[in-house]
Amino acid sequence: MTMDATFTQDKAAIRVSMTAPTGVEMRGEGTIKGQELQGTAENVTKPGDIALAFKAKLDGDSMTGEVRMGDLGTLTFSAKKMK
Fold first, then answer.
1. Suppose 18 and one of 5, 6, 29, 57 were both cysteines; which one would form an S-S bond, judging by CB atoms 3.0 to 4.6 Å apart?
2. Domains in the chain: ranges and CATH
3. Which residues contact 72 (CB under 8 A, 6 or more apart)?
4. How far, CA to CA in Å, does 60 sit from each of 63, 65, 80?
5. pLDDT tens for residues 33-56?
6. What span, in angstroms and rounded, lies between the C-alpha atoms of 43 and 18?
7. Do 30 and 8 contact (CB within 8 A), yes or no?
């Protein structure tokens, strides 16, 4: 699945928001230390429906990591900075 996500950073704090092609909106927060990013996000379309825990490593304009999707298991992901 492909989706756009917006990450904003304020010192070591990050915020993320994304909308899946199905219209489900997720929002979350976390921390960044060096090139390592981790945090949580929740479904804001249907609160309490699913919670995500993610961790990733930054490499230039790219990011790779994994996300735990509640009881659905863990998936890997990759991302590239939009130009």
1. 5
2. 4-80 (2.40.128.20)
3. 50
4. 8, 14, 9
5. 999 999 999 988 876 788 899 999
6. 10
7. no
